[in-house]
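Note to self: keep these together.
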Amino acid sequence: MERLQKVIAHAGVASRRKAEQLIIDGKVKVNGKTVSELGTKVSPSDSIEVEGVKIERENKVYFLFYKPSGVISAVKDDKGRKVVTDFFDYVDERIYPVGRLDYDTSGILLLTNDGEFANLLTHPKYEVTKTYIARVKGLVRRETIKKLEKGIKLEDGMTAPARAKIISADKEKNKTIVELTIHEGRNRQVRRMFDAVGHPVQKLKRERYAFLHLTGLNAGEARELTPHEVKQLRALAENGQ
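Structure:
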């Protein structure tokens, strides 16, 4: 069951606030009866009319996308740059990204038209773990790994404890590959963490999102999440994993 104004807004008829006003003004019918109370909830089987026109309710869809570097995590860009939804012209539903990945970061990004699901996964209280592979400048020491794991003081406060490990190091090229797992979602957090310890990121990829991974996908490709995966993600978020 969902609130009536939320269903109207998701159908693209009007904004949530405008939908509320339409209900108050008696311009909405549910199963042929006028409804004017904002607390009204409806089920998927209910028929809804707004100003005499029956609304079409979107099926909820969920995608795992391998975002390439150089693509904006948005549905549109005022500078005309490529956005993630440009890769989904075959999808009828109006989907949007769950959270974001920086323009110059590649890797897993989820897209959906389910606002409740998106809010659950991005809410600070419930954020799931995300694993990044970073190529950074310089040779990272064991003490630096411990700092990243304990938490780094950034301008917006201390980061939460993380998991970090060195994958490889190249003395000749003066670079290190580090795996970092966090559960927060601050703006450019991974890059800022490495900047703070003196190892600027040269290349960054989000390798895993909770239990999800990129196996079988190339950059720019996507697949639908299975119903079981959606259920698992909800459970992980609600349990604070």
